[in-house]
Amino acid sequence: MATKLLLTFAICRLIVTVGLTLDPTELLLLGVDAQLSVDPTDVKAASLDFGLLIGAQPPLAVMHPASSQDVAQLVKAAYGSNFGFTVSARGHGHSINGQAQTANGVVVQMSGSKGGSGMASGRKPPHPRVWPQERFVDVWGGELWIDVLRSTLQHGLAPKSWTDYLYLSVGGTLSNAGISGQAFNHGPQISNVHELDVVTGKGELLTCSEEQNSEMFHAVLGGLGQFGIITRARISLEPAPQRVRWIRVLYSNFSIFTSDQEYLISLHEQPTSQKFDYVEGFVIVDEGLINNWRSSFFSPHNPVKISSLDPNGGVLYCLEIAKNYHESTASTVDQEVESLLKKLNFIPASVFTTDLPYVDFLDRVHKAELKLRSKGLWEVPHPWLNLFVPKSKIADFDKGVFKGILGNKTSGPILIYPMNKNKWDHRSSAVTPDEDVFYLVALLRSALDNGEETHSLEYLTNQNRQILRFCDEAGITVKQYLPHYTTHQEWVDHFGNKWDRFYRLKMEFDPRHILASGQQIFTPTNMASWR
Ligand code: FAD
Question: Which positions fall inside the FAD-binding PCMH-type domain (predicted)?
Fold first, then answer.
């Protein structure tokens, strides 16, 4: 009874706020009412994200779906109603710029519904289902990658391609790409999906794959949530390694650093024994960050002094590599690592090695999260900027940004690692530079209100703008990863030759622009002028 009253209240707000003539009983008749919430805690949570940059208006209601059908019913109602309302899927809300938010509509909270949200129906989304023979797993779109891992490990299997942090939802990362140090070898996460169930912007539930509704399949992968809500993904698996040899080596010369990174990713076709399983790297411009928050790799009791490695005190680059192994092959791992390291040209005596269980390696950033949380440094604004930089321009980027614009303070980790474009399916909606090899440069900075100008949100936001302007003026044709633009023309430029298809498919699958309006690519159709 209380739920019904709250829901009626939510619908009245929908009517008042956007001038709908939707009959409240229309939504009540959907049979999803027990999954809708206007609880102020739910609504507030759905109006925030990891970026903490924009104070978006809260949504009108939050849905905690238990099935694809719940999602389909809601979207169908939005699409079919005379005046309509927007619907945004929200995974774990780890976007930076409000991409999972919607002010005048309903947020579908895909992750966390199993955690006992208190919804009256008591129904919950399905658990992961592993197919050991076929080596894939079917997961709910809101499943967090950490839970996907836990389920598949019970069968000795694991997904092949990861993000550095596992508390992200499957639907959220597949809407972007999902990248980490395995991408050079296995491609991004979107290259490791067999099949999807998707609720389109018309409320239809489609199964899609290479063979079935293939245009939809490719559009949704990297599609920024524009064509449908992913309710199920079938993800490719491999036998899970047991342990990881995790190594960091340092460079003071950028061109030697990138040559070594490019050499390592060129080995992707080699047998497993002759390549690393993970290749990343990061930039060190201030001494404090050699022991950066992304891991406690370097011992806090034995901090590495930049000056001891580079007497000029300039920028250092850290190559981060890892080799997976099974306890049964432990005897050969030293030799394999040794022979790969011999081919590299890092600063002698700058090899730092650790050995740990596979799960601990994959879950490494969560440890840092717990530490930052305990110091109140996690829930702060994150003006992050992620760029794909073509290989031919990475040296210009180094000169202009790492050795120029950044000065000697970074306010957070700066990742840099290359990927092979041939591991990305050009039919997906994800956008990458037009070269065989391109780099991810991830400026993962946190803004602090501690009185230091270089830590302030305003300073870091201005610096991001300066970096983009510099790239533009220097002819460095970067593509934003996890893109954020506010004008139509910027989106058209971002998608380049993919724009026409992107637009056509949007008109086909979400003609009222109901979905993921927080991306600010399409404006929801003026409700009153519809039909
Ligand atoms: P949300 O923020 O909830 O949603 C993101 C977008 O996807 C929104 O537009 C939303 O509407 C849409 N969406 C969400 N669920 C669905 C669905 N089921 N169907 C359709 N659309 C949906 N990314 C990497 O690639 N590699 C990394 O190593 C990496 N590390 C990160 C570490 C941290 C600490 C953080 C905060 C982010 C990191 N990211 C990384 C970025 C992350 O992949 C994206 O921000 C991703 O979108 C977050 O997932 P989410 O579940 O929180 O998505």
Answer: 54-240
